[in-house]
TrEMBL record:
Coiled coil: none annotated. It comes from the Bacteria. This is RNA polymerase, sigma-24 subunit, ECF subfamily. PANTHER family: RNA POLYMERASE ECF-TYPE SIGMA FACTO (PTHR43133), RNA POLYMERASE SIGMA FACTOR HI_1459-RELATED (PTHR43133:SF8). Residues 128-174 form the RNA polymerase sigma factor 70 region 4 type domain. It comes from Actinoplanes couchii. Gene3D superfamilies: 1.10.1740.10, Anti-sigma factor, zinc-finger domain, Winged helix-like DNA-binding domain superfamily/Winged helix DNA-binding domain. Residues 29-97 form the RNA polymerase sigma-70 region domain.
Amino acid sequence: MTIPGTDADSDTGLLAAVRAGDTAAYGTLYERHHTAARKFAFGLVNRPADVDDLVAETFVKVFAALRTGRGPLIAFRAYLHTTMRHLWYQRARMDRRLEFTDDLTRYDPGEPFTDPALDRLERTFAAAAFRQLPERWRDVLWQTEIEGSTPAELAPRMGLTPNAVAVLAHRAREGLRSNYLQQHVATADHPECRWAAERLGGQVRGRLAPRDAHRMGNHLTWCSDCRDRLAEIREVDSFRNAPYRQRHHAETSG
């Protein structure tokens, strides 16, 4: 039995206990965070049955990670919510691909199907990706993509040549795309996996420096978790070029 107020009763202590094989400690974590997890799930799905399924699957996935020595060392609730968000996103993508219907009219190329819930999450990812850009990149993207300014019009204000503005805008768009893909990568725990996870967006976009690309290649040869993460965001990136892809506005969110 744990004594309230001790480290063993904290999330950190409970997480350590679960890793050591104490399943009852995970039950305590479940009771402590179940209500918050359901509230978070209701922000993703609407039907109570779907909420309960998503919460249960999330707790099972995190428990499995902890029992294999992975998962969070601290900040259990943040890790739980991140896992839930990615599980829901994977479900939404799967549902879009596996929808059974005899009516294919809404899949006409002229009227792409938009899932409102998935679109909302995509916009959240896009906005977060935009905020992570350097201020100068955000500025040039806003001026060119939202305000519709040309490089020639921006050049005097930015103290650059029109060609330099165009190059800056191109780099900013690539940075936005890489950051956007990065939003789809779940939290990693091993230091080398964290290093790789922070660069998977650049890997997909072919933007890694040669030394980083070599290190990434070596890491992926032995790390199945990072290979799975890479496959996930490659799939996300492929939607950008699919005929009926989700219509999001990554470059116009802010």
